Structures are given as structure tokens and as C-alpha cells.
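R.M. (postdoc): so does anyone remember the format we settled on? I'll just put the C-alpha cells first.
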């Protein structure tokens, strides 16, 4: 069977490549991907947190695999490692949050059960005692005539809001149903900081966040790794979340339920509301300097001129490390997220290196660090790219796959925004894959993975994502499996490798990614974004017209 797949891929490559016929293709092996995933997600690596022993073991392993494949180092000083520093801020179990109403009993929040978060001031003890304001979704979007902060001064106050954004079916209003960056919690904390707020707290709901409280608790109850503050730079004393149940209690102070608050936030003309209470918080933290790295390698192209340009393949190697124990297990192994994508990245590097005739452009493989901390590693690479952004033809990212066998479809969220899309469509057709739209556009997945960091500097970038249907299985199997994963394993210790996993789908998607990459690497002109896209200006600024 594998031999037939290999022969099929060789034939497909001959059809896919527009300028250089590829007569052979190294076999892409799901079993090799399995071996990488099994090691990277083992307890030995302790959840691969950046700046930890397990994280260092992971990056050393990845660099070794690149070297064995024949991919050359493209990091600092002739190494595979592109090092960068972050500030680790670990919240403590003694953190306190209390709302003191103008009348009535105090509302006391329990750490992890009712609230979770961290100081962004990068100090050992942050405190606040301030009036509070409900600011809806916490969005200022002039292009949509939307300002949740209009008419209110929140300097030195606590802002309370929902994640997400006003619902829309109009492509000219928050781009329709697909979540924009305005809906992401990262943006909301940034905007609160710009307005001088002392603290910012999201009321969690599963529909607006796209995941349950267990995911929030697992992600925010451990160390956050932040970009170091510049001298004099403002920061929130606390950035965090409260449960919907606690949101109900806060809403009652306004005479509203949490659902009524959200409905009000969704309406054009929303007016911020003073909450008749002071929020008091004590947010202790252990603060340290974290040194971590991206692992970067290159395989040179065959064209004397175009080899200075490249196609980028990426996947993040990190996960959450060791955290709160659930059922006696405190290691957040991150097997699916993102041992799978990293294993695929290593296998694609090996297969590309074994091509007898290399594509015209080079290939760069970026194993990014600190993705779980807010896309930190890919952002650093985007700001300090191995080659200028204007010389990167495209970036394909691979993040989190379920091991249920061969897929019948694939999702390429964002590819349709680029001039690469016809290549993607052709590759999908040759692989027998239907292209499915983003199943959860309101989750804003485009802004939650490493390709976003590349897009921000103009590089046409998207993720290859798992589809919804699996060959030989009932149509509902994929959706049920993903829902179960999100509820019980995503960002929890249950994301562990199992020996019965079927890696045929990851083998299939690696082949798909290679088809796209080789075709783009052989094109005469550099791809770009389609007219009107939010990233087109950055592409043009990088020198690509």
C-alpha cells in the first residue's frame, strides 16, 4: 500500500510542478511521524514548556532530526536555534479577586474555580482596587463604526467584557461570520492597555470563547511567557477570565443576566456601563527570564537566482509543561497539540531533502516555540526572518491533527485569500480531498495559529487543518471526535499519545503540503494576497507587487 502511495505521489508531483517535472518522490511515512509524536509527547519531555528541561530536550531532538535529514542550520551563529527571551510570569494559588458592591455582600472569587489570569506588569506582587466598567466586547474598530469605549474613561479602572465580536452575516461588517482579530482575547487585552485600564476580565462563555472553562483553567493557571516590557510601557495589573456563573453575579449588579449583557454587547450603539462595585485584586507571581528558541533549517533550491527565495513550512513544538494535576496527572503532554504537526514537519523536511531534483526555490522549516504563550516564537521569526519577508513565497503551517485514519476532506482556512489558492485546489483534487470551509468561523482560528504571525508581515500564509470526514467512517465521526477532544483533552493532561492511533491522515496531509510547496517553489512569480485583503499592504511594503 505504501509503495502504491509513493508511486501515486510521484505521478502527482509530475502533474503539479509547473516548471520542473518531479520524476521521483521520497515516500512519506505515517510511521515515521508516529515515532516523532510518541517521543515528543512522552512524559520524559514534561509537556515541552519553553525554558524547561523538557522544552530543551524537544528543541535538541528537532535539530538532530533536521541534521539527519540533511537540512542545513538557519539559526543563530550557524546553529539550528534562533534564540529569544521572554519573561515568565507564573500566577500563584494565593491570587485573590473580590468585587465590593456599593450595597450588599462582597462577591469573592475562588482561584481556578471562578477566575484565572496573570499580571502583565511582570512584578512579583501586583494589586489593584478600582471602579469597574462593563465595555461589551472591548472593541474599537473605526472601519466598522464601532467603539465600545466611546464616552467612558476607563483609565485606572477594571474593564469587564466578553471575548468574540458582534455577530454578522455581512462581509462588510466584521467580515461576516468569520471572527476577526478584534474578537480574540489577545486584542482585547491590548486595547484595554491602550485605554489605561488597571485590569481586564473576560466573562467566559463557551460559545464566545469556542472552548470550555477546563481549557481556560488549564491554559491560564500556569506560567505565561510575555514579551519584556519596554521602559515606561503600560501594562495590566491583571488580565484574566471569570466563569459565566460569576458573570451572572456581576451582571446582577447591573440588573442583567450574563446572556442579557452579551445581547447588549452585540448591539450597534452599545454604551459602556459603570458597574456599581469596586474590584480588588492581589495577584502574586513568580517572575523569571525564559530563554527559548525556534528551530530553523533550510534545504537549498536548484535555481541560481530563485534559491534565495523560499517556501516556509512551520509547526510549533511547545506545549504547556507541568500544571494542575487532573486525575493525578499534571503533565500536559500535547500529543495532538502539537506533537502531530511537529512530527509532520520533520517528515516533510526529510522527504524534501531526498528529492533527487530540488525545486527552484529553497524550503525553510520553522519549528516555532512559545506558540501556546501567544504565538511568541513565530512572531519573533516574523520580525527577525531568516530571509526577508518579501522573499518568502508562502508559509504553510501544521497544527493539531486527530489520528483517526485517512481523511476525505481538508480545511485550508485563509488560503482562499491568497493567489496560491488555485495551486491548493489543484493539489486537493490530485489527492482526492474535498476542500471544506472552516467548520467554526466564529472561533477565529485564522488568528490563533502561527501562520498569523507570518501573514502580519505580508507573507501569504495559512494552515493545513484536519477536515471533518474520514474515509470509511460515518460522516459524524470526525465532528464527534473533535468535540470530545476539545472538551476532555485540549490543553489538558489527557492530550496523550496512544499506540492505537492511525497516522494515515497525517501522512496524507504531509503529501498534500509537499505538493503545494513544490508547486509554489517552482512558480516564476512570487504569490501575494488578493485585492482588498487586510495583509496586502504589508506584502506590497515588503517589495512584492
Amino acid at each position: 500500500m505504501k509503495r502504491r502511495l509513493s508511486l501515486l505521489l510521484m505521478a502527482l508531483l509530475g502533474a503539479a510542478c509547473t516548471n520542473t517535472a518531479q520524476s521521483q518522490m521520497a515516500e512519506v511515512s505515517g510511521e515515521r511521524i508516529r515515532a516523532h509524536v510518541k517521543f515528543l509527547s512522552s512524559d520524559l519531555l514534561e509537556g515541552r514548556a519553553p525554558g524547561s528541561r523538557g522544552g530543551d530536550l524537544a528543541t535538541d531532538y528537532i535539530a538532530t532530526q533536521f541534521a539527519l535529514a540533511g537540512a542545513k542550520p538557519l539559526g543563530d551563529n550557524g546553529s539550528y536555534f534562533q534564540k529569544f527571551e521572554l519573561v515568565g510570569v507564573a500566577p500563584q494559588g494565593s491570587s485573590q479577586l473580590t468585587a465590593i458592591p456599593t450595597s450588599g455582600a462582597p462577591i469573592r472569587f475562588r482561584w481556578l474555580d471562578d477566575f484565572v489570569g496573570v499580571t502583565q506588569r511582570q512584578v512579583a506582587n501586583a494589586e489593584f482596587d478600582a471602579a469597574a466598567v462593563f465595555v461589551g466586547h472591548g472593541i474599537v474598530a473605526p472601519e466598522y463604526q464601532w467603539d465600545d469605549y466611546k464616552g467612558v474613561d476607563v483609565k485606572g479602572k477594571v474593564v469587564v467584557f466578553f471575548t468574540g465580536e458582534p455577530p454578522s452575516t455581512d462581509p462588510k461588517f466584521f467580515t461576516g461570520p468569520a471572527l476577526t482579530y478584534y474578537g480574540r482575547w489577545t486584542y482585547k487585552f491590548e486595547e484595554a492597555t491602550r485605554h489605561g485600564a488597571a485590569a481586564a476580565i473576560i466573562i467566559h462563555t463557551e460559545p464566545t470563547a469556542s472552548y470550555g472553562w477546563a481549557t481556560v483553567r488549564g491554559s491560564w493557571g500556569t506560567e505565561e511567557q510575555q514579551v519584556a516590557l519596554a521602559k515606561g510601557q503600560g501594562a495590566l495589573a491583571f488580565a484574566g477570565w471569570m466563569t459565566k456563573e460569576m458573570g451572572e453575579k456581576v451582571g446582577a449588579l447591573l440588573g442583567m443576566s450574563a446572556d442579557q449583557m452579551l445581547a447588549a454587547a452585540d448591539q450597534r450603539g452599545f454604551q459602556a456601563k459603570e458597574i456599581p462595585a469596586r474590584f480588588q485584586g492581589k495577584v502574586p507571581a513568580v517572575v523569571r527570564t525564559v530563554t527559548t528558541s525556534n528551530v530553523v533549517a533550510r534545504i537549498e533550491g536548484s535555481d541560481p537566482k530563485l534559491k534565495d527565495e523560499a517556501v516556509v513550512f512551520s509547526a510549533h513544538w511547545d506545549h504547556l509543561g507541568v500544571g494542575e494535576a487532573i486525575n493525578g496527572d499534571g503533565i500536559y503532554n500535547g500529543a495532538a497539540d502539537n506533537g502531530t504537526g511537529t512530527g509532520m514537519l520533520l517528515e516533510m523536511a526529510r522527504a524534501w531533502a531526498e528529492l533527487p531534483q530540488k525545486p527552484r526555490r529553497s524550503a525553510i522549516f520553522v519549528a516555532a516555540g512559545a506558540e501556546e504563550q501567544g504565538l511568541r516564537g513565530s512572531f519573533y521569526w516574523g520580525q527577525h526572518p531568516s530571509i526577508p519577508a518579501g522573499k518568502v513565497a508562502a508559509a504553510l503551517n501544521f497544527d493539531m491533527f486527530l489520528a483517526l485514519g485517512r481523511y476525505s476532506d481538508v480545511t485550508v482556512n485563509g488560503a482562499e485569500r491568497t493567489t496560491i489558492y488555485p495551486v491548493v485546489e489543484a493539489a486537493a483534487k490530485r489527492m482526492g480531498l474535498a476542500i471544506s470551509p472552516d467548520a467554526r468561523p466564529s472561533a477565529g482560528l485564522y488568528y490563533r495559529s502561527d501562520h498569523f504571525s507570518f501573514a502580519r508581515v505580508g507573507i501569504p500564509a495559512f494552515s493545513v487543518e484536519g477536515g471533518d470526514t474520514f474515509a470509511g467512517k460515518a460522516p459524524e465521526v470526525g465532528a464527534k471526535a473533535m468535540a470530545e477532544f476539545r472538551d476532555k483533552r485540549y490543553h489538558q493532561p489527557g492530550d496523550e499519545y496512544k499506540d492505537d492511533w492511525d497516522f494515515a491522515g497525517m501522512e496524507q496531509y504531509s503529501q498534500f503540503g509537499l505538493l503545494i510547496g513544490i508547486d509554489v517553489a517552482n512558480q516564476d512569480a512570487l504569490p501575494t494576497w488578493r485585492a482588498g485583503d487586510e495583509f496586502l499592504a504589508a506584502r506590497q511594503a515588503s517589495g512584492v507587487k
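R.M.: ...and that's the designed sequence above, right after the C-alpha cells. Also worth knowing: The chain has 15 helices and 21 strands. The chain has a mean pLDDT of 93.
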